[in-house]
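[User]
If only I could read C-alpha cells as easily as an amino acid sequence. I have put the entry right below:
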Amino acid sequence: QVQLVESGGGLVQPGGSLRLSCAASGRIRSRNTMGWYRQAPGKQRELVASIASGGSTNYADSVKGRFTISRDNAKRMVYLQMNSLKPEDTAVYYCNVRQTHLLSGLEDSWGQGTQVTVSS
C-alpha cells in the first residue's frame, strides 16, 4: 500500500512560480519512477514530468525549460518547481509512483491532486 499526499498548489499570475511537493509513504520498492501528471477540464490526464530512482528525468514538451522535477529518496518526496507559468498550465496536478512487482506486475499509485490556477 502506497499513500501520496500533494501540497503547494494555488493561484498564481502568469509568469509566476509555484513549487509542488509530494510526500510518499508505505511500501515502495527502491527501484521506481515518481512523477507528476495533470488534468485540465475536458482533457485527458497527461504526464508532466517523471524521475526514476536512478535520477533520469522526462518532461512533456510543453513544460521543458520551465519545470524541474526532483526527488529526495531519503525523505521519500518528489517536487515539481514550476516557473514562467502560463494560463494553459491550469489543471489539477497529481503525484504518481510507478513500480513493478515480480508477481503482481505494474503498480501505479496516485495522490488526491492539488489545484494549480494561473490567471491574472
